[in-house]
Design brief:
With about 300 residues, this protein is of the alpha+beta class. It has three domains: about 110 residues, Helix Hairpins (Orthogonal Bundle), CATH 1.10.287; about 50 residues, SH3 type barrels; about 80 residues, Alpha-Beta Plaits. Helix content is about 50%, strand content about 20%. A five-stranded antiparallel beta sheet has the order 4-3-2-1-5. Strands 6, 7, 8 and 9 form a four-stranded antiparallel beta sheet that branches. Helix 3 packs antiparallel against helix 4 and helix 9 crosses helix 10. The protein is elongated, with a radius of gyration of 36 Å. The chain starts with a helix and ends in a 15-residue tail after the last helix.
Length: about 300
């Protein structure tokens, strides 16, 4: 009888016993990983830790925002280039938020040594996951150091164009002429060709007009010079230029080159086409269009 009972005791654990052992093992590993404030502490102590952590979160966020605001607009950084100020604001803000997060985790009682060990053991996976982010950070640093453009410049890169409104830690933000917000990774911009239309104070505009072969070239030339001189926003140094650039199937292409200030580019570009058309009509300069001549052989 006793042997039979001993045999039953030595039998394999049941399903629920295995489940219990599994969760017991999980709990044991969690206790090793965390210095949990629940075990060995009263609910009051746990509540105090939570309140302190919330206070650190609120005060930390307020302090970080104040510091970021002072970096961007404060007197201490007033002489620093605006592009550098904005980038430093993003960089320092991220670093300070990480410090706040570590302080909160430590206050709640997490084992930072064990957490660091877990992160280190997962370093390869984390590195691969953050590969794009790290390249964007490096791209942002390159943009700030070499300054291919600054905030407020109108640029074209990676198939998009617009005015730069922000250079962040990971992304740069552009606003298109039709008021669309375009966010481009810094790594993509730094590894592509960048066209900065605002790099210089002045820009040249090339206007191409077609005149028929029967039109008087000298008259067309005088009309274009007169239109360029009549617009006060067109600079007279360098002087406007007019030249013949090509002979086409139905007409001649004549080009007007003028120089304007960057801010006046579009104010000159669109009205000029209308003014030239009116002047051509006034002086009888024909603008060619496709013709079809039919000859009937009787």
């Amino acid at each position: 009888m006793f042997l039979f009972m001993a045999g039953e005791t030595a039998a394999e654990p049941t399903f629920w016993e295995k489940v219990g052992e599994f969760f017991a093992g999980v709990w044991e590993h969690l206790l090793k990983f965390f210095k949990t404030p629940i075990v060995g502490r009263t609910p009051a102590e746990w509540c105090i830790r939570v309140v302190v952590a919330l206070a650190i979160l609120i005060i930390g966020c307020i302090v970080v925002k104040r510091i970021a605001k002072n970096i961007e607009n404060g007197k201490l950084f007033k002489k620093v280039n605006k592009t550098v100020r904005v980038f430093l604001k993003h960089l320092i803000s991220v670093a300070l938020y990480l410090v706040v997060a570590v302080a909160i985790i430590s206050t709640l009682g997490f084992n930072m040594t064990a957490l660091s060990a877990v992160i280190a053991s997962c370093g390869l996976a984390i590195g691969l996951a953050l590969q794009g982010g790290l390249s964007n950070i490096a791209g942002g640093v390159m943009l700030v150091i070499f300054k291919p453009f600054e905030i407020g410049d109108y640029v074209e890169s990676s198939g998009v164009s617009g005015t730069v409104v922000d250079i962040g830690l990971f992304y740069s933000t552009l606003t298109t002429p039709d008021n669309k917000k375009v966010v481009v990774p810094n790594g993509t911009i730094s590894n592509n060709v960048i066209t900065n239309y605002s790099a210089h104070d002045t820009r040249r505009i090339d206007f191409d007009f077609s005149i028929s072969y029967s039109a008087n070239i000298d008259t067309a030339r005088k009309v274009l010079y007169a239109c360029a001189k009549a617009d006060e926003k067109i600079l007279q140094d360098p002087l406007p230029e007019v030249m013949i650039v090509s002979h086409n199937e139905s007409g001649i292409t004549i080009r007007l080159r003028v120089w304007v200030k960057n801010a006046d580019y579009w104010d000159v570009y669109f009205p000029m086409y209308e003014q030239v058309k009116r002047s051509f009509d006034e002086y009888g300069v024909e603008i060619p269009y496709p013709h079809l001549n039919i000859t009937i052989d009787k």
